[in-house]
Amino acid sequence: AEAKFPVAILVPGHFNDHAIGRIDRAFRRVRIERADPSLVTGEMREAVRGVASFGGINAAMIDALPNLEIIANFGVGYDSVDANHAARRGVMVTNTPDVLTEEVADTTIGLLINTVREMYAAEKWLRDGDWVKKGNYRLSRLTLRGRRVGIFGMGRIGLAVAHRLEAFGLPIAYHNRRKVEGFSYEYHTTLKGLAEAVDTLICVAPGGAATEKAINAEILSALGANGVFVNIGRGSTVDEAALAAALENGTIAAAGLDVFADEPNVPKALLEAPNTSLLPHVGSASDHTRRAMADLCVDNLVSWFGERRPLTPVP
Ligand code: DGY
After folding, report:
1. Edge-to-edge strands of the sheet including 149-152?
2. The pTM is what?
3. What is the CATH number of the domain that holds 144?
4. Which residues are catalytic?
5. Which residues pair with 277 in a beta bridge?
6. Are residues 121 and 46 in the same domain?
7. ipTM for the complex?
8. Which residues does the UniProt record annotate as the domain D-isomer specific 2-hydroxyacid dehydrogenase NAD-binding (predicted)?
9. Which residue, among 134, 299, 150, has the nearest Cα to 222 in the 3D structure?
10. Does 313 map to a domain?
């Protein structure tokens, strides 16, 4: 049997089976229903030195665990972990970058084409029997041909999306806090500037206070009536009421969304908005990639407790 660290790892809520198996081989695992400080027992307070979690670790939860050394976040986005408070408390935070980059980029392209060519509605047409009853599905109003694409958030995933879009022959521009040296893509210093220059906006930006509701009515209206918005990043980045209104009023033409502000709840206005393809946060959700993320999440814990060296600490 593998050597076991004499350390307890807290796992709040649902967690990846593969990661659970690995945690159980290397550590003592304690679990609670959800990351709620009131569920932490006195015994847990003493024993827990690591947390493995699919997001959702706030300051109160960190403070409830005085011997906590590391939070291993399952996922590249760690906006739901209070990393600033963790840093103040000297708690290491790790995430799972790189291993999901290509998968999320694939999903993004799929969602873009699905949205623009109305595949979600065409499939419904077939399944509902309308092909037989009413004839061919209508011609899609939109096309990728001639589109100008803007990427909000040119990190690892944004770049993998851009590489794929190059093969489509579409011009690419981007907005980031900083210009990325060595890119040939057109840089815009503001999101508004980017939205004015393109008609297709793909949001890959991280969540958190810096991007909260950045995609608002003004940005959507800058995309124009032919505008398509795709979100693979975080729902918190979007003013969802403004987006639903923009779709309803024809301010933009269509939207493809994999993420929402209050998951798993999707606002009724978005469920009812026209020309919209909605996915239940599946960007990285293949068995292959979730296994790789699980391994990296647990490898961070093993490396920390073995060598005091996290593999992928957050900045
Ligand atoms: C991530 O890695 O951030 C994905 O959204 C899965 O949580």
Report:
1. 186-188, 172-175, 149-152, 200-203, 228-231, 254-257, 276-278
2. 0.96
3. 3.40.50.720
4. 234, 263, 281
5. 256
6. no
7. 0.91
8. 109-283
9. 150
10. no
